[in-house]
Design goal:
The structure is a single chain. The chain starts with 32 loop residues before the first strand and ends with a helix. The protein folds into 2 domains: 95 residues, no CATH class; 50 residues, no CATH class. Strand 6 and strand 7 form a beta hairpin. Helix 2 runs antiparallel to helix 3. It contains 3 helices and 8 strands; from the N terminus they run βββββαβββαα. The protein is elongated, with a radius of gyration of 18 Å. The chain is of the alpha+beta class and 150 residues long.
Length: 150
């Protein structure tokens, strides 16, 4: 694979997809690209999000929006550092937790290591959805849902 400034989104509804197996890049047992601490799979080839197999003691960073966002920002920063001839920085994963909205405006999850159930996790899920959404109409719709409207 040539690394001449190529950007190729490989994620999808069912995961990274077959492209990764044909890329020649090193893969994890789950089929994600094994990356160094700098998020490089090979010199100049940066991988982030669900496609990235970022090693942790005892496993890998889980797939999720928090990991995809922070890895994307970090990979872009390292790409720019590399183009400027600066040293690349290692990615440091901080897991804030996860929440899943359930029926009746309740949710469940782990936030900063604490198990939560009820209205707070659901509220946090939709609040983060509003915060991370693009477009005023989308934000307005999510905010209205957050406050209990339809």
């Amino acid at each position: 694979m040539s690394a001449e400034r190529r950007f190729f989104p490989v994620g999808g509804q069912d995961g990274p997809g077959p492209f990764l197996g044909e890329s020649g890049l090193p893969l994890t047992p789950a089929g994600r690209v094994r990356v160094a601490a700098t998020l490089e799979a090979a010199p100049g080839v940066f991988v982030a999000g669900d496609a990235a197999g970022v090693a942790l003691p005892g496993g890998f960073v889980r797939m999720g929006v928090q990991a995809a966002l922070t890895q994307g920002w970090h990979a872009a920063g390292n790409l720019l550092r590399g183009l400027r001839g600066e040293p690349l920085q290692p990615y440091r994963w901080l897991d804030p937790g996860w929440v899943v909205p359930l029926a009746n405006r309740r949710g469940a999850g782990f936030i900063l290591g604490l198990p939560l159930f009820g209205r707070l996790p659901a509220f946090l899920h939709y609040a983060m959805s509003v915060f991370r959404s693009v477009g005023l109409d989308t934000r307005r719709h999510l905010f209205r849902h957050l406050l209990g409207g339809r």
